[in-house]
Amino acid sequence: MTDDILFVLRKLAGLAVSPMIWIILGLVLILALLWRGRPVAARRVTMALLVGLLVISTLPLGWPVIAAREAQYPVEPPLAQVDGIILLGGAERLAVSAQRGRPELNEAADRVIAAALLARRFPRAPLLVTGGRAAPGERSEAEISAEILIGLGIAEDRLIVESRARNTAENARLSLNRVAPKPQARWVLVTSGFHMPRAMAAFTAAGWPEPTPYPVDFRTSTWRDAMGWNPHGNMGQLRSALREQIGRLVLGLTD
């Protein structure tokens, strides 16, 4: 029951940090003020909303958080021993895959590509694919990625598919129950660079022998490159940054 409550709270928090929700709430407030005959207050809210939109559209406010998280672990870490590979879900387009009848990936597709390359590089290492969130009639994140990995030449008997996890904490806990890794085992964790700090914290908290972080799917280059008119990109990056901050806070409270 506690896990279900936390899941709902995480979803609500993720919705609350969406800049688009802020815009909608601002417009609702403006309409409410006009309805109540307060045009001066409505004009002030409108001006504040416009200024906020201009700031978010031109300044990459989420960039410092994302860049700092991506810089926390080295790219291409040295891998002398690999006893297993962990691929976190999140790169899959669930609804589109169900509608089109074929596996489809989103902008985080680097996760699946990197896991396939690592599996080829270490042919004896099992590959754990974790991720759920499937609606009725849909395949889970893990099942979609597993199909792609098999298509890329990874033997099906090397795959361990965990299809129930709804978030990063459940990725770690349910995968631990499924695999039961030995204390000295060396597992490599593959996920997006900005998500890696929270993923590492979740796997450590769940009791995994500390995995080797293998960050991919980097979203930042330089501050100068990020500057400019980019409403959609800046809003998405800001939302990702806030979600990671909230996710890490919730994980810390539940450790």
Question: Can you characterise this structure?
Answer:
The chain is of the alpha/beta class. The protein has two domains: 2-68 and 229-254, no CATH class; 76-216, Rossmann fold (3-Layer(aba) Sandwich), CATH 3.40.50. Helix content is 55%, strand content 9%. Helix 2 (19-35) packs antiparallel against helix 3. 33% of the residues are buried.
Summarize the topology.
Elements: H1 2-16, H2 19-35, H3 39-58, H4 63-70, E1 84-88, H5 94-100, H6 110-121, E2 127-130, H7 141-151, E3 159-162, H8 168-179, E4 187-192, H9 196-206, E5 212-216, H10 223-226, H11 231-254
Helix pairs in contact: 1-11, 2-3, 3-11, 8-9, 9-11
- Secondary-structure element order, as H and E? HHHHEHHEHEHEHEHH
Number of helical regions: 11
Secondary-structure arrangement, i.e. CATH architecture of the largest domain = 3-Layer(aba) Sandwich
Strand order of the largest sheet: 3-2-1-4-5
What ranges have pLDDT less than 50 throughout 5 or more consecutive residues?
A: none
Report helical residue fraction. Answer: 55-70%
Percentage of residues in strands: 5-15%
Key phrases:
single chain; 255 residues; alpha/beta; Rossmann fold; five-stranded parallel β-sheet; 11 helices; 5 strands
Write a short abstract of this structure:
By secondary structure, this protein is an alpha/beta fold. The chain contains eleven helices and five strands.
